[in-house]
Structures
1.
Amino acid sequence: MADRIVVFWRDIPAQVIIKQGRKSAKRELSLRFTEAIDMAAMRTGAAESGDYLAEWRKADPVPVSDDLEAEADKAVAELEEAYDRERLVALVKAGGKENG
């Protein structure tokens, strides 16, 4: 079994890692996620400080199938759908936090 790990800045996802032993498949989410992270960081004053780095985190691993590339693509598609424009705008306005 492989594990899916999503990397977040606060509550905004940025990257997906599918890992099995030493093998991994990594995918960055689309530019709109990077832009949302940057806007939220600027909004909170964290863009130029160690606070920015401190807010990065990895979600708990979730077991997935051994097809690393397919699982990475699937996870990206799910996140792209789950975080529509409205949700990202709300996260930016809340400083990157889901519950403000």
2.
Amino acid sequence: MGRLLIVCAVLLTSACKGDAVGDTPRRARAASAPGVTSAESPGDVIIAPPTAAYKTVAVSSPGTVSGTVTLKTALQPNAPTPTGNAAPQCGDSIADGSIVMLGGGLAGAVVWLDGVRTGKALGAERRLELESDRCRLVPRVQAAAVESAVNIVGHDDLRQHLRFTAGGETAPRAAILLGGGEQVIPTELPFKTPGLVAVRDAEHPWTRAYLAVFDHPYHAVTTSGGAFTIDGVPPGKYTLRAWHERTGATAQAVEIAANGSVKVAVVLEGK
């Protein structure tokens, strides 16, 4: 692997002078390609703005909610997306990565407790990584707290203009220019406020990832087998919400007793 370079990000509010990845990179425009199936439009608000500030308190007799996310009916991956003129860097097509299942469980679903305004402290780890590897963004789905940061790590010789846009917002929170091999570009802008932030590249329709941003720690992303666990929860009644890019969001009531452990089955239905 070549030497990693820290380069300037092309941000929404201020642009770096000059091209951060060189003035004459190989530009590879994709030919027109069929869109991918998604249950949500870019404007949908999935993670609602909080009604009050979250406060860290000592949680007495905390409980746990865990379970598995499954599909009501099977969903097939979307058709591979032709890469057009990007084929020299990416191959002729990119396979869809939206549906990953193991033992009936659905990976990549975001699960959270809605409306929690007091509880345990946010996690100390606040830095994520999002890699462009073989023309794909990985991990595809991540969740993090507000005021986190992400290192955008580029490995590909493909010019990409990534835009980070939250549901309900018209302007991107950040814009990052990748291209020219090994790079690392840090940014905190996607994590300023709660929201489901979609990462897209208009030139390359197969490029997509999601950052679920919360102002509380009661959230999880399902594993390859669809499992999730949310612990340290103050006893009480809550709304458990779940979202996946191919199904949209769902909600169900849960009640967590003092020192209790609740198992739930979350069933999502694709569109």
3.
Amino acid sequence: MTTMKDIAKMANTSIGTVDRALNNKPGVSAKTRERIMAIAESLDYKPNRLGKALVLRNKNMQLGFIIEPITNPFFEELKRGAEQMRDALNEYGITTHIFCMNTHEENEMVELLDRMSDMGVAGIALNAINSPVVIDKLVKLRESGHRIVTCSTDISRGYRDCFVGFCHEKSARVAAELLAKFTGKKGEFLVTIGYRYIMAHMQRLNGFESKIKEEYPGISLAGVLEVEENDEIAFRETLKALEGNDRINGIFIAGYGIKGVAKAVEVKNLGRDIKIICYDNSAFVTDYVKKGVIDAVICQDPEKQGYMALKILSDLIIGDKEVRSDTYTTSIDIRLCENIDKDIQDWDI
């Protein structure tokens, strides 16, 4: 199906310009409008349902999005996707407030939820912290009519309308299979997570552990380190684990702290003797893959997650309908040295 993004690409212009041209809005020259209309016709473009609904209803609506600290590159990319959808919705008079947290603390998230409620938002997307105080706040928001979409990391189904993210348990089982094959199906594996209260990290840990126990009797777990999404803590704790156990030959990084773990392996000068699998590509991850320190990366397309979370939230509110499923997940994308530089597969906007 042809999208505005396809037309913008062919016309060498922005999605906003395409939207204004197709909907006969001001701010586009006659020449540009004519060119865009011709491209749309040649591609057999059909306007999307959301756009039509927004134009017809002309609602002055506000949405909210709470994102974890963008010191983690994953959330920086997720924010970029949310901003794309924010800009598209803005063309129809829908205002989206995006707030990035300064900490991983539940109290800060509750304060932001209260702030958005006071601002009058109709719905909120968020990287949810799976804690009683956050869940209690979300329950109250839903009872007052707010729509809730969790993104990247989830909470129990009864407390939100939809989850947009990744199949964390399945991806971790894939990681366990890869790491087992990389190491000859024997040895001891170390696992690092960010926080135990982040459901995504616990789902990855559970998936990894279950796969190892089910299929690889020659492999045991050397330990699970909670590194608080902090490279310094990850470096210190990983180094301590490596110094205390020379049988560790595999590391599964189930959260952030990648740079700290990789640095610890370099300091021990073990190189390829220890196989490492982590999540989410970035410039420094690419460097470590090319140097042979990190062996595989599981990518989950955070930009698409941010975009789709806000899109589904707006569908729920503007469309006055339930989404087809309460879960939307991106594909598991495995990167090795040979394909670490490839662009993330294009997706419809």
